Structure to design on (593 residues):
């Protein structure tokens, strides 16, 4: 039943059926009322005419048998008569059916009819009397009492009565006709309802199925309709709606992809918050940053952000204004900007952009340190050049030998300044990518051994044992800029010799590590303190005086070496234990044979 009621056909069918039933009910009631009134009026009129005719016949004919015969012919098949010359007694009667005696008794004894004997007025009354066909059944009768002679003060009365069973039969036939009409109306209603179903609800079903397909995301769904009425126009509008939905969703999808690409490609961390401070959206840098803060326990338990950022978020949500700050969190510096997000005129959340300023701070510190270090490195040779030059100009030197010694010092300091400037220029070119490498394929064993043997004489003079060891075959090759790698080796071996005491050892070793050649320079010197390990490859790093044995450099060699190795797609690192020696090593990619 629910299925029928929930369908258009069922609703249309039930509506038409109820409408037809209501109309038939009203028509039946009115029809029965009309037929009852009409039948009553007809019966009354007929009975009046028959009573008048009987009275006239009875008064005009002296022969009683002829009068009764004529009266019997006049009366209808459902009509009976009783003639009483005096009250309460019947003189003559005509009765067809059962219970005639009882009927006459009741009619003659009815008090309302007694007035007819004394006046010229007729009295008609509906009475409940025994049935003409059944013994123990009562029926409704209409009884007319009409005077026979109106000239006398006391006169006779003719009683004509007729059963109203005719009206009941008429009403029953009428009811049967109504029920038949209702059945025919039911059939016609059902037929027309399902006929309309094929013309109306069938296109609606197609549109319903199409709507479900649209809800599933199939925006290519189209509904066909051959009619040009409202349903056809609805189908056309449905198809246009599907096309517009597809177009708008494609535009939204493209904008979403563009926004996602922009957020993903941004180096800055972007986080979007809801009104209740929950995270709605974040890009990969933001997710990594939040994970890092969680690991470091910077974020309080149950909170989305560190305390400093929560204060900024509260300010934005309550005061609806942008906030920009630069904060230090876990040793990193961030330029943080919070902006409110609006939905109409109310704030629905906020967006935070975190720009990592750590590198800028580091570069600024490096710049400051660079200026300080360069100033410090240049101050000494410049002061010495200036002092000895003034001494020579003032003829301070007492002998030629002293003047030559001063000139030698001036020359050495100028050489030192030249090396410093050259190293600075080389380092700047390497870091800016402007220095070009001239790579050739070489056999590593021979090249590294040759570079090592260059320092044999210097090692003998310092009473240090210098060795070359290799674990790779002579055919192992790499594509390198030989001059630049030699610059790296020169720096590492020279540092090892300078930092190794007499009777110590420096071993240069070549090994194969995967697809790389590992070149290491190992010494037995005093090693590097743990606190200095992180600064070994920075500019102007120098070992302390106690470890250099009075032999200092510019402090740029390892920084230059690091950049040269990285330019060869390799890496350089150091291992050292204080008091047990140091091992500098770098990796170079091997040439695939």
């Amino acid at each position: 039943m629910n299925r029928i009621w929930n369908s258009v056909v069922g609703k249309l069918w039930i509506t038409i059926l109820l409408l037809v039933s209501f109309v038939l009910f009203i028509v039946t009631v009115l029809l029965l009322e009309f037929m009852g009134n009409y039948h009553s009026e007809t019966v009354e009129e007929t009975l009046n005419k028959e009573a008048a005719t009987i009275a006239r016949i009875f008064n005009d004919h002296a022969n009683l048998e002829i009068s009764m015969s004529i009266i019997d012919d006049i009366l209808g098949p459902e009509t009976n008569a009783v003639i009483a010359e005096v009250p309460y007694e019947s003189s003559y009667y005509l009765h067809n059916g059962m219970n005639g005696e009882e009927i006459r008794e009741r009619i003659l004894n009815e008090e309302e009819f007694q007035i007819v004997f004394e006046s010229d007025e007729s009295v008609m009354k509906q009475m409940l009397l025994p049935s003409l066909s059944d013994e123990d059944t009562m029926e409704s009768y209409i009884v007319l009492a009409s005077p026979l002679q109106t000239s006398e003060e006391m006169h006779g009365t003719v009683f004509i009565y007729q059963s109203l069973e005719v009206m009941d039969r008429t009403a029953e036939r009428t009811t049967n006709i109504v029920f038949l009409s209702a059945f025919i109306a039911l059939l016609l209603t059902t037929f027309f309802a399902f006929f309309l179903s094929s013309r109306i609800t069938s296109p609606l079903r197609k549109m319903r199925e199409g709507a479900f397909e649209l809800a599933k995301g199939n925006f290519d769904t189209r509904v066909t309709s051959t009619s040009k009425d409202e349903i056809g126009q609805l189908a056309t509008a449905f198809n246009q709606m599907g096309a517009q939905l597809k177009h708008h969703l494609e535009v939204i999808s493209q904008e979403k992809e563009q926004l996602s690409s922009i957020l993903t490609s941004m180096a800055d961390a972007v986080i979007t918050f809801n009104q209740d401070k929950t995270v709605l959206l974040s890009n990969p840098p933001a997710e990594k940053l939040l994970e890092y803060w969680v690991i470091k326990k910077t974020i309080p338990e149950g909170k989305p952000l560190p305390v400093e950022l929560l204060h900024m978020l509260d300010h934005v949500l309550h005061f609806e204004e942008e906030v920009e700050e630069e904060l230090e969190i876990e040793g990193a510096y961030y330029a943080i900007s919070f902006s409110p997000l609006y939905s109409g005129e109310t704030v629905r959340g906020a967006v935070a952009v975190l720009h990592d300023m750590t590198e800028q701070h580091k570069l600024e510190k490096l710049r400051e340190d660079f200026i300080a270090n360069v100033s410090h490195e240049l101050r000494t040779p410049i002061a010495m050049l200036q002092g000895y030059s003034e001494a020579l100009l003032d003829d301070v030197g007492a002998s030629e030998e002293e003047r030559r010694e001063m000139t030698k010092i001036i020359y050495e300091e100028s050489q030192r300044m030249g090396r410093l400037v050259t190293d600075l220029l080389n380092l700047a070119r390497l870091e800016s990518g402007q220095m070009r490498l001239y790579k050739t394929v070489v056999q590593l064993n021979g090249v590294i051994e040759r570079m090592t043997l260059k320092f044999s004489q210097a090692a003998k003079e310092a009473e240090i044992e210098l060795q070359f060891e290799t674990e790779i075959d002579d055919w192992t090759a790499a594509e390198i800029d030989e001059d630049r790698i030699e610059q790296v080796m020169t720096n590492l071996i020279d540092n090892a010799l300078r930092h190794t005491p007499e009777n110590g050892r420096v071993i240069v070793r070549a090994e194969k590590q995967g697809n790389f050649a590992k070149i290491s320079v190992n010494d037995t010197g005093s090693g590097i303190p743990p606190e200095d390990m992180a600064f070994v490859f920075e500019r102007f790093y120098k070992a302390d005086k106690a470890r250099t044995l009075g032999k200092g450099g510019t402090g740029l060699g390892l920084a230059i070496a690091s950049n040269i190795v990285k330019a060869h797609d390799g890496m350089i690192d150091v291992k050292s234990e204080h008091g047990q020696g140091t091992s500098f090593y770098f990796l170079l990619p091997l040439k695939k044979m």
Q: What stands out?
A: The longest helix spans residues 8-60. DSSP finds 15 helices and 17 strands in the chain. Residues 544-551 have pLDDT under 50 and may be disordered.
